[in-house]
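Annotators were shown the component list below and the corresponding predicted structure, then asked to write short factual statements about the assembly.
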Amino acid sequence: MTIAGFGALTLVVCVAAPLVGATAIHLSRVFDRTIPFADNVDAQVFFVARLPRVLAAILVGSSLAVAGVVFQAFLRNPLASPDTLGLSTGATLGAVIVITFHIDTAVLGISAVPIASFLGAAIALGIVYAMSIARRHGTSTTVLLLAGVALSAFFGALNRLIQVLGDFTDTFRSIRWMMGSLDVGSYTDVVVSFVPIAAALVAVATLPRVLDLVSLGAAAAESRGVDVRRAERLALVSASVLTGSAVSLGGPIPFVGIIVPHIVRLIVGADHRLVLPAAALFGGTFLVLCDLLARTVFGAGGMPVGAVTALLGGPFFLWLLFRRFR
Amino acid sequence: MTLLEANDVSFEYERGGARVLDRVSLRVPRGGIVGLLGPNGSGKTTLLRLLSGTLAPASGGVVLDGRSIAAMPRREIARRIAVVPQETHSAFDFTALEIVMMGRYPHLGAFELEGGADLAIAREALAATGTTALQARRFATLSGGEKQRVVIASALAQASDVLLLDEPTASLDLGFQLDVAALLARLNTERGVTMVVSTHDLNLAAALCGSLVMLRAGHVIAAGDTRSVLTSCNVRALYGVDAEVVHHPRARHLTVVPLARAE
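Structure shown to annotators:
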């Protein structure tokens, strides 16, 4: 029921969001089959200019929210997010290296920045994963969290170091990238990200009951029949693929991965069979709305969507914390 | 007939590190309640984890119903053995019923939804532990005794024939201690659930357990029938405490009255 509500909301936002923008268009004209597409300006604005961006927002928002849910359950920490294990910082480092040193090699039509940021996330995962399997008897979530914090700080420092080496324009481009943008050029970027994201979402879809159980602790999950090592590997890798793909598509958009899971839990409760689909749907919706604000309210030039999520998300998250720990 | 046994199991948490258990053997008869006694750090919890297969022994083996537990898939072990840990915390706000339903995990396929039968089993487990009224409550808001009974209900919903309990009454007040002890005795007589219970409460052990195993620094120092093992001599060897062990006519079991630290 609730999930159907979230689904309907996502659909409505998907159709409504492309209608809003600097050029006013009408839904009836967009789907008017009597006008050929080449002459239908409304349809062109809808399908060519705005829909890819909305779809990108859906993909990125869903991925970050689902990755957040998975990390929070496996780290047994409601404050964990896709950034916690240093994945976003790793992705950012990759992008900043490519921007600063003008690496323009494209692979299969995908430009270097998204590839490098995906690789950065993968390297961060590799380091964190090596830490997690180093222990003989199960993963210590404390070790993972500390490793993530250390990794984030280290990558962050490398980031700033590299930016000092770059010239003014490069640094500006880097900063702009770090604020996140869903201004994708075409459907190609969206499709390229969709493939790994869809695969990871399918993998996560096998996990909801396991996520319930591991949030009681690894030993409790094991004694109820969960192969925790295997589940953990699957969860870490798929949540990282989600994070890496999302960041390479839209930049390190902050807060979505932590706010959306918490809003969703307030509405549907703790059961991950509801939390996961609700987070996937609401994460997308939330980011489309933030992006809508980013490209309309703040003037013609627009504002980076990452700034909007942080401006809305920061205070909202503080309020949630205040309510919770009061 | 032996249902669950540990044969000469040894364990160390770090390779070459201190031995937490050193060639420990234990037999649990079908339908029996075995008490695990020992001071803090004597290896009780580790032994329970070896028995549930969540830790693998460095040497020796655990056998369930004639099969080595090391060769059994986790899910299959979970259908035979349920565990009640000392404390249960949840990272998220699950309801009591949701916690109990988690016990059904080993009986369900990857995409299978819990059916009416699973819900009926969970409801029955709630009723058996007197927690039906708590089912819609948030687990985190329950008192220690309520939590422990809900976790026992979750273990019951697992429908296993063995229940391993790690100090099930440790954080409970006197009233809840008696409630939990009575609940365990009833589950044992009415359903024939086999149990291994680790505890520091010697009187609980005397009331509940048919046999006892005394662990000290990873070694078994005494094992056997409760009446023959629970002696002032063994209590002194186990805890370094002088105690009087007498049969209490109204409680109808042995009782232990600690007197002083032994010289």
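Statements collected:
1. The interface with chain B takes residues 72-73, 76-78, 136-137, 206, 209, 212-213, 215-217, 219-220, 222-227, 265, 269-271 of chain A (CB under 8 Å).
2. Chain A is about 75% helix and 0% strand.
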